[in-house]
Amino acid sequence: MIMKYVIIGGDAAGMSAAMEIVRRDKQAEVTTLDKGHIYSYGQCGLPYVIDGRIPSTDNVIARSVETFRTKYGIDARTGHNVTNINSEAKTVSGVVLEKDETFHIPYDRLLIATGANPIFPDFEGSDLAGIHTLKTIPDTKAILNDLNDSVKQVTIIGGGYIGLEMAESLAELGKKVRIIQLGNQLANIFDQDMAELIHEEARQNGVELIFNEEVKGFNGEGHVQTVVTDRGEYETDFVLAAIGVQPNTNFLDGTGMHMTPKGAILVNPYMETSLENVYAAGDCASHFHRIKQKDDYIPLGTTANKQGRIAGMNMAGGANTFKGIVGTSVVKFFHLTLGRTGLSEKEAETLGFDYETHKQKAKDIAGYYPGNQEMQLKFIYEKTTQKLYGAQIIGGNGVDKRIDVFATALYHEMTLNDLLDLDLAYAPPYNGVWDPIQQIAKRKS
Ligand SMILES: Cc1cc2nc3c(=O)[nH]c(=O)nc-3n(C[C@H](O)[C@H](O)[C@H](O)COP(=O)(O)OP(=O)(O)OC[C@H]3O[C@@H](n4cnc5c(N)ncnc54)[C@H](O)[C@@H]3O)c2cc1C
């Protein structure tokens, strides 16, 4: 039987699935629908297109729509905005944007991979020119278009990872950068004591930090001129709002699909939703957290690709499972690398875990080898068994490698003591004879 596969969303999760289906079902009829015009691009690279480190948005496109059509035989459609699904009739409906025509497409198996959109602040004055969010290539072009020489002072609302990457990027362009943050620290996925290192790095690079203020609106004549908070008003020539994302799932209202309270589609390990023959993956779906042992929502490209791949394999007849996330991420912030995985101390506390923490500094390579750099590590682990719960590492070189080793250890439910048995690579230009994560384990186990 020839199967009709329909995928909504032509980026990381959607096209990972499409490629698996094409590989596994040679007779497949695959239709992919995206409201935009660009497929399979790395949003993660966009901050670096803005400061010119990456020359063009073309560089972040992995495969063009045309490649999917001609090389892989996928009916890859653009400008198709899906507005409804009918799981009884097994159809997807929507509007072809440029033509204002409706469409109805039947499916045997459907994947929802519609991602998440940045939350655009619904404040007074939000419609003024010069206020942006960053998600897509058109967003990037709009930002680049606005960042002319007359823009001197920029304001970023939100100190999450996009806010941090953009602070660096805009500072690289010679702009005076201010971050306004609702709470008392940047990068909430880190504990406050670790975030202090991020604050120090921000200030050393001329970034002004405003904490504990809530943005209420914007003033200006046609173009934004000030940002108004509950405690003050700040002059600005440009605003980037990076205050979080929400899953693109509104079009599913009324379908009865099971969702998390924040609107992410609940999926089981096979990436199946509560509706028969309907799968979901990526930023629009839930992400099972292995340490928390419950569904979570941590929308990242790495997870979208994995979930999309598994959804595609299963749609084409497989029975593969997504094993879950442990909450790993890494961010470059000026000269620092910020890595974290597992639970932070505040998460462990909220979850009522019986934990202990240990903090220690270590060198990335042999202390006597030129160019060594220091990193600050913080481990969170179960008090009695010393089973690992999480780690945060901030420093220069080598943070990324240690956080990945730790993430692997978390996946395998290792203890501090187990870390000491790992056969990690050592030569003076690459490591100490005891790796930094083993140095901590040695002290504490
Ligand atoms: C600036 C930036 C930096 C990032 N950096 C990192 C990083 O360093 N590491 C990391 O792991 N992740 C990073 N991410 C996150 C990562 O890009 C996302 O997790 C990933 O793109 C999610 O993929 P997705 O396929 O689930 O959703 P998306 O990439 O959002 O794709 C969803 C697609 O669905 C389409 N769509 C939505 N609704 C409809 C509809 N109703 N009808 C038709 N089409 C629709 C959209 O147009 C879109 O093309 C970054 C994101 C941004 C914005």
TrEMBL record:
SUPFAM superfamilies: FAD/NAD(P)-binding domain, FAD/NAD-linked reductases, dimerisation (C-terminal) domain. Pfam families: Pyr_redox_2, Pyr_redox_dim. Residues 3-308 form the FAD/NAD(P)-binding domain. Keywords: FAD, Flavoprotein, Oxidoreductase, Redox-active center. This is NADH dehydrogenase NDH-2B. Coiled coil: none annotated. InterPro entries: FAD-bd_OxRdtase (IPR050260), FAD/NAD-bd_sf (IPR036188), FAD/NAD-binding_dom (IPR023753), FAD/NAD-linked_Rdtase_dimer_sf (IPR016156), Pyr_nucl-diS_OxRdtase_dimer (IPR004099). It comes from Viridibacillus arenosi FSL R5-213. Its cofactor is FAD. Residues 330-431 form the Pyridine nucleotide-disulphide oxidoreductase dimerisation domain. GO terms for molecular function: oxidoreductase activity. Belongs to the class-III pyridine nucleotide-disulfide oxidoreductase family.
